[in-house]
């Protein structure tokens, strides 16, 4: 015979661990401690890259403005570029030639305070074609004689040359037909005093005009010496930057 026996089953079940369901309330003397986040390192590499890019862009802008203003002829608005023709009488040659006509192109740079004049080959001769700059900021005038391929520098004569603003107003009035310049000519005589070796002190506009050309200094004669003209080699440039025509005669030293 086989005897089968059963183990008694306990009526009590083992208690589950309910620690997870318990809510712990801190006492008054206890302090809450919040978790502290770790600080991320500041991206110094990105900051340096952005700063370097800003410096590079500023340098590029400054360099572009410098090159544009000093090495390229800026485009002028139409009301600052003039093509002028003036009829005048020369008291010396009036019986032979009568009235004469002078033609030139004038550019007036009000912001930079200088004037640029281009005189083409005259119809009646007696004068050389030339490019002229009157720099009121530097107080200098430069004549580039195209026929001789030489530059001449002298002090700006504000008695004969109108300032840019005044000349601009004059030419605007002439263009509108409300005012006509007087028709006579004034003579001035210059003599060469020496060679100019460096153009840096003459300003960017004269430097651009006379670059790579023989350049000489001029001195204005207070009294014309007609007797010495026969022994000197002289040439003339006629130009217009006032209510009259000016003939600048340049004589080389013997």
What does this structure look like?
It is a single chain. The protein has a domain at 78-251. The chain contains 4 helices and 10 strands. It has helices spanning 44-71, 94-97, 164-176, 204-210, and strands at residues 81-89, 99-109, 114-119, 130-135, 140-145, 150-155, 185-195, 214-220, 234-240, 245-251. It has a 10-stranded mixed beta sheet with strand order 1-2-3-4-5-6-8-7-10-9, with helices on both faces. The chain is elongated and about 95 Å long. The mean pLDDT is 79.
Keywords for this entry:
254 residues, alpha+beta
The unreliable regions are none
Radius of gyration: 43 Å
The SSE string, one letter per element, is: HEHEEEEEHEHEEE
Please state roughly what percent of the residues sit in beta strands, choosing from under 5%, 5-15%, 15-25%, 25-35%, 35-45% or over 45%. 25-35%
Gross geometry: elongated
Q: Using DSSP, what is the number of strands?
A: 10
Summarize the structure.
This protein is of the alpha+beta class and 254 residues long.
Task: Produce the secondary structure layout.
Layout: H1 44-71, E1 81-89, H2 94-97, E2 99-109, E3 114-119, E4 130-135, E5 140-145, E6 150-155, H3 164-176, E7 185-195, H4 204-210, E8 214-220, E9 234-240, E10 245-251
Parallel strand pairs: 6-8, 7-10
Antiparallel strand pairs: 1-2, 2-3, 3-4, 4-5, 5-6, 7-8, 9-10
